[in-house]
Structures are given as C-alpha cells and as structure tokens.
Amino acid sequence: MTFFRKDDQLEKIGTEILEATWLEFPGFARNQIALTWIVYDPPIPVNTGGALSSDEFWKYPVRGFSYRGVERIYPADLVALFYLVAIQEWLETSMVGQSDELNRGIQNMIVDSSHDALSLVVDVLSGTTSGPELTPGPLETWKLQRNIVNRYFQSLGWQDLESINVNQKTWSDGPYGRERRFMGTLMENRNMLTTNATARLLHSIVGGVAVSGVRSQLMMSLLKRSLNPATLQDNPHNQITGFLGGGLPPEAQLWSKSGYSTPMRHDAAYIEIPSILPYLLVVFTESKTHSQNQDLLPFISQKVVNAMSILT
User: Fold this and answer.
1) What global pTM score does this model have?
2) Domain total in the chain
3) Could you identify which of 50, 164, 173, 282 might form a hypothetical disulfide with 195, taking C-beta atoms 3.0 to 4.6 angstroms apart as the criterion?
C-alpha cells in the first residue's frame, strides 16, 4: 500500500488536468508523464518545525492522486533529493564527519543542481571514487560500497521505495571508466525513481521526520525557492522557470527539487498558498520534444492551483 489514500474528488480533478494537458500539448503521449498529488487537510501535519514525532506523523492520513505513480523513470538530477536525505542520515549518525567543503557540496547539489557537487556527496556517502576501470574483484567490492544508499532506503521498509535505484552520479557527458562499467551495457543500472517514491520522501521531509526534526528543517531551508522575478533573471538554473514554480502566484511559498536532461523534465514540490490547503506535487515527463518546452510543467502547476482553490 502507498502512503496516501485515494480520493474520488482528486481522482476526477487529476484526470481532468491530465486530459487538459494532453489537449494543450499535441503529441505529448499518455505514457510520457507520471504524476503524484498529495493534499494536506486539517489538522495539517507538515511544515510544523518538527513538532511531531515520527510515530505521530505517520498516523495522519493524507489523500492523493497518482497517474503512473509506480512507473520507474530516470530522474536526472532530482535524485539529489534522495542523496540529501542520505547524507543527513550519515551526518546524524556520525558515519561521516561534518566539514565546510561537504556543506558546500550539499548546498550546491540542491540549490544549483551541480553535477560536480553531487559527485562529491556520492563519494562521501559510499566511500568510492570515480576513475579507471577496475579488475573484477575490486570492481565487485566497489559496487557493494556504492550500493549503500540503496540499502539505506530499503531499510526504511517503505513499499513505495521498493523499486527505486539510487546508486549513480549524474553527468554532463556521461560516465567513463568504472562508472560506465557500473552503469551496465544497456544502462540498465541507471538511477530510477517513481513519482510515488519521490512524493513519500518529500512528504517525510516536510513532515519533519526525515532523519530528525532538526535535519528536516535544514533540508527544507535548502529546498526553499524564491519566486522573486529579479532573483530568477539573475539565475539561469533557478529551478522555477520551466518547472512547477513557474505556474504559481507570487504569494506562494515553494520548496522543491527539479531534474532536467534531454528528454526528461521533472519536478517535486511542496507548495503553500494563502487561503488554500497546502499540497505536494511531483511530476515526471519523458519526451524529446516536450522536455524542451518550458510551458508544460507551469501549465500543469497552474491547473493544480486552480483546482486547489475549489477543493473541498
């Protein structure tokens, strides 16, 4: 079972939003999108500053809608959201030591979607490094170490995370050497996420129960996005333009992590807007044509905003 309950109203509205999207963007196929939408009804259990214990938090029911929410999709640099939680767990349990350089890498991985920063974080998490090809014995040891993040997420026992794979770095040109061998001949060992898995992880962060209340607050601060137009103009990697934040009103508050690479455009967001219920939205799209279209995700986001204003 997934962490949210299905809701007839969300099912109807979510389906209408998808139909409107396919109508608006001709050629955007029904199997090129996956979506998970979570609504927080009172008493709202998220963004409480870590006021709830983990046991209390997971007792709060939430309603949601998903379309192809269990389909495994390459996440591009949205995988950084999972590495963010993992590195906070490692720091919390003293598996790795705090340092200014690691903090810089964590921040740049999330705020700027830096591949180089993510590479550092993966190295610290796994105790592995990139480099030339390895002979079979050392390569097997290296693979075992690199899979430590997968083992951590499987240890949580969340059904939504059972099918994911998070053991690869992200690249500008692609992997080489031992990294290419590890990816597999047909790239079968690529990172893979689902929108349901991503939604559950983000749900735990905004709920203040990812690692700890303090660590969740720290992660929230890294995920906070500014909708100030002047800020967006100065930052071409703002994770707003062309993503879900692009469909929000200026008074909205947004915490998010995007992922982009041809042919992928993804976003995972927690959103608060005055006078409507807070909600969480994860959208993955796969299309060589439409991944370049900066209107697609904002269109979906705007439709969800409109729906939230009339939701009962």
Assistant:
1) 0.97
2) 2
3) 282
For CA atoms 170, 172, 174, 177, the dihedral sign is negative
Query: Is-contact 233 220, C-beta < 8 A?
Result: no
Do 83 and 41 share a structural domain?
A: no
d(CA 142, CA 129) in angstroms, rounded, equals: 9
The first and second tokens of residue 87, run together, are 């590195």
Instruction: Give the pLDDT means over successive 10-residue stretches in the chain (312 positions).
Output: 94 98 97 98 94 95 97 98 98 98 98 97 98 98 98 97 98 95 97 98 98 97 93 82 96 98 95 97 95 95 96 84
Nearest to 82, CA basis, from 53, 122, 123? 122
**Residues 194, 189: Cα–Cα separation, whole Å:** 15
Rg (CA), the chain: 19
Q: State whether 30 and 78 are in the same domain.
A: no
User: Which of 139, 169, 193 represents a domain boundary (last residue)?
Assistant: 193
Per-residue pLDDT reduced to its tens digit, 52-61:
999 999 999 9
Residue 148 identity: I
225: amino acid identity, one letter? R
- Domain with 34 in it: 1-70+239-280+293-312
Interval 183-213: pLDDT, tens: 999 999 999 999 999 999 999 999 999 999 9
Is residue 201 domain-resident? no
Contact 263, 291 (CB under 8 A): yes
Residues in the chain: 312
